[in-house]
Amino acid sequence: MRNALAFILVAGLLGGCASKPPVDPDGIWINQNAIDTAAKGANLRQSLLANGPNLEWSLNTKAGQATFSNGFEMGEGKLQPRKEGGWDVDFYGNYKETLSIKGADLTQAASDSGGEQHFIKAPIPAEAGAAQGSTFERALYTAYMGGNWKILDGPGKGGVATFSPLGQVTGLAGIDRYALCLAGDCAAMSGEYDSMWLEMAGQGNAFIFVRKGDQLEILQALNQAQNSEMPDLHPGVRRWLLEKK
């Protein structure tokens, strides 16, 4: 009798494991590895490049559509199931990517565009109608810029600045919005340096920033290019020195 009860218990446990529902592929998936690496206080763009190039996927298996964002551009392709499992994303004959679900992760196989990448289902998707990449950006801003920052040097010294996941800034004198440069033209202009856009009432400028652990140094961006050339931004004088509290 005791052996029979033990058998029933084990069978029940195995049945419970077997009945675990598969992960729903539809929805938004973000590159959490890139966010985690950056959040340690590292160089932002190096963190993205080391774990990229893609930062977000949006899948709709019913419509057979998949879109990605790499922080600068969006690609849309046809999502086709593979016989061996997973999907091919066909970008209209130009190239394709291969996706599969392993455990709770969405895996993008290594290809000509880069190495293998891993994505997690976004815990808080962007609002309906938000641009592709917004979900990743909000999660990155929360992890990389979230919390209170004490102003150690610069206008408002001694005060506290906060950066919201949606791009608002409070406590930083003369600034009400910010945007981090993830890729694209702004990255080409700042080269090896991280850059951000700071503005007040719709008027702003690019700044170079250096993140080392809990300290964030924001510097004026000096353009060393000629008027007819693409801007070539380099660090200038320090504007603010912030420390995460």
Major β-sheet annotation:
8 strands, antiparallel, barrel
Number of helices: 5
Neighbour order of strands in the largest sheet: 1-2-3-4-5-6-7-8
The level 1 CATH classification of the largest domain is Mainly Beta
**Low-confidence segments:** 4-16
Estimated structural class: alpha+beta
Number of separate strands = 16
In angstroms, what separates the terminal alpha carbons?
Answer: 62 Å
How many discrete structural domains?
A: 2
What overall geometry do the principal axes of the alpha carbons give?
A: elongated
- Write the CATH fold name of the largest domain: Lipocalin
Give the rounded overall mean pLDDT.
Answer: 91
Helix content: 10-25%
Structure explained in plain terms:
The protein has 245 residues and is of the alpha+beta class. It folds into 2 domains: 120 residues, Lipocalin (Beta Barrel); 99 residues, no CATH class. It is 21% helix and 39% strand. It has an 8-stranded antiparallel beta barrel. Strand 4 and strand 5 form a beta hairpin. Helix 2 packs antiparallel against helix 3 and helix 2 packs parallel to helix 4. The radius of gyration is 22 Å and the shape is elongated. The termini are far apart.
Characteristic terms for this protein:
245 residues; alpha+beta; eight-stranded antiparallel beta barrel; 5 helices
Layout of helices and strands:
Blueprint: H1 2-18, E1 27-30, H2 32-39, H3 44-51, E2 56-60, E3 65-69, E4 74-81, E5 87-90, E6 96-102, E7 105-108, E8 117-121, H4 134-145, E9 148-153, E10 160-163, E11 169-170, E12 177-180, H5 185-190, E13 194-200, E14 203-212, E15 215-223, E16 233-244
Antiparallel strand pairs: 1-2, 1-8, 2-3, 3-4, 4-5, 5-6, 6-7, 7-8, 9-10, 9-16, 10-11, 12-13, 13-14, 14-15, 15-16
